[in-house]
UniProtKB/TrEMBL annotation:
Pfam families: Radical_SAM (PF04055). This is Coproporphyrinogen III oxidase, anaerobic. It comes from the Bacteria. One of its GO terms (molecular function) is coproporphyrinogen dehydrogenase activity. It is an enzyme of class 1 (oxidoreductase). NCBIfam families: rSAM_HutW.
Length: 459
């Protein structure tokens, strides 16, 4: 919960960041009936801010650090999927639930959405326009530079997309090859510079620090390259040792054998990822260089070159807004219920073709696809408020119940003692170390509340 006392909290306050996100329990799985599903789409929303998440579960290649690979990018399969997905989106857009409130941000993620053809990108973009969108709504297309042609860029712009997020991870050609990425350094920089010349679209690059073979010198060059590329926003993500990746599988094999045979050492293997202390230094280097170059920090891991890049989806998603999920593997929440659509593509397609009891195609409600539905979490609003504040780097204590803040003060004082935050009368500001260990702080806060339940005084 508290971290440990250390002369260098950036490197040693915690042993490791073991998960990409923090959460606490409070929900349980539900068996949603068709009648309840129908009621959801006939009822107006109570949310004041909303988002739409659309999932394209296709990739041409599995990267070494990724455990989300679902389906290969077969053109025929993608076309079939896009056709079914656009039908479901069109149906949903006409429901009372969707029409009852505007959408502030839309994110088309994956997978690799840019593996769609230009015409398919246009279909998804035009379908999004049928939803009630807020003025200047942020509409993001995620993907990779490789294969993202001018025809695809033009189709996306013409159909309403105004933000493009590319998973660069590293510019270094050798690091990229080891990670299973396409394209070399020169190709990436040149293409990002071309795209960034657009007068209004926001171009964003994701970088990962801690990749195998990525020395501090290489990381510093990655940072210089991303600035040189002209992009309007950049994410700096720490490599996490997720189970099921090529990296984690190799690490386990290394543990399972004492000494490799001559045959094994002759094989090409992945260089081990750098340790947590080096990753901490990489984060500090990245934050320092970007901010000294007049980039604005929007969260613990995202910076913008100018006001064009707003990162609305990323910030609002952490604050617990309503997110409507569409597509196999998509996640979100509807009427306070957590939703995670199943990843099985055949089952998802099967749900699209189901018929009603009367034998006619269900054309007034989006199909209820296989997946998990969770009960509303009674602490969801409070948890999201904490997560959003800590992710931003500063928690406004005046926004919370005074008794609750007093209840949490032992934890906050411990964080301050360990160099993770600075407390003032109404604001708790994270240090550089606190921002790096942001998810650990969130996890610690939820663990504290679980072990020390807050009981407000009776009036």
């Amino acid at each position: 919960m508290t971290g440990i006392s250390s002369p260098d909290p950036l490197k040693f306050a915690f042993a490791v960041k073991s998960a990409p996100h923090a959460s606490r329990g409070g929900s349980h799985p539900l068996n949603l009936t068709p009648q309840q599903w129908q009621t959801w789409w006939a009822s107006p929303t109570s949310a004041t801010q909303r988002a739409l998440y659309i999932h394209l579960p296709f990739c041409r290649k599995r990267c070494s650090f990724c455990n989300f690979f679902e389906n290969g990018s077969n053109p025929a399969r993608i076309s079939h999927y896009v056709k079914s997905l656009s039908t479901q989106l069109n149906i949903a857009s006409k429901t009372p639930f969707v029409q009852s409130g505007e959408f502030d941000t839309i994110y088309v993620g994956g997978g690799t959405p840019t593996d769609m053809q230009a015409s398919e990108i246009a279909i998804i973009g035009e379908t999004i326009q049928a939803f009630p969108l807020a003025k200047n709504a942020e509409i993001t297309l995620e993907g990779r530079i490789n294969g993202f042609t001018n025809a695809k860029f033009d189709a996306a712009l013409e159909s309403g997309f105004n933000r493009f997020s590319f998973g660069v991870q590293s510019f270094n050609t050798q690091v990229r090859l080891a990670a299973g990425r396409f394209d070399n350094r020169e190709t990436l920089i040149e293409r990002l510079q071309e795209l960034s010349q657009h007068p209004s679209a926001s171009i964003v690059a994701d970088l990962i620090f801690g990749l195998p073979g990525q020395t501090m010198e290489i990381w510093q060059q990655d940072l210089q390259d991303v600035i040189q590329s002209g992009v309007h926003g950049v994410d700096l993500y720490q490599l996490i040792g997720l189970q099921g990746t090529r990296l984690s599988n190799q690490a386990q094999k290394e543990k399972d054998r004492n000494k490799p045979t001559h045959k094994e050492t002759s094989k090409q293997t992945l260089t081990p990822a750098v340790d947590s202390q080096t990753r901490a230094s990489m984060y500090a280097t990245g934050a320092s260089l970007l901010e000294s170059s007049d980039w604005q920090r929007l969260s613990s891991c995202h910076w913008s070159r100018d006001s064009r890049e707003r990162s609305i989806y990323n910030s609002l998603a952490k604050s617990g807004i309503e997110i409507l999920p569409f597509g196999a593997g998509a996640g979100g929440n509807i009427h306070g219920h957590g939703i995670m659509n199943g990843r099985d593509l055949s089952l998802w397609h099967q749900a699209q073709s189901q018929v009603t009891e009367s034998g006619t195609v269900a054309d007034t409600l989006p199909s209820q696809v296989p997946g998990m539905v969770m009960s509303p979490n009674p602490s969801a609003a409070l948890d999201s408020q904490f997560k959003a504040g800590l992710d931003s780097g500063a928690l406004d204590l005046s926004e919370f119940n005074t008794e609750l803040i007093n209840h949490l003060m032992p934890l906050f004082y411990a964080w301050q003692t360990h160099g993770l935050v600075k407390l003032s009368h109404t604001i708790m500001t994270q240090t550089l170390a606190g921002r790096f260990w942001n998810v650990n702080l969130q996890t610690g806060l939820f663990a504290y509340l679980k072990q020390n339940p807050f009981q407000p005084c009776a009036n």
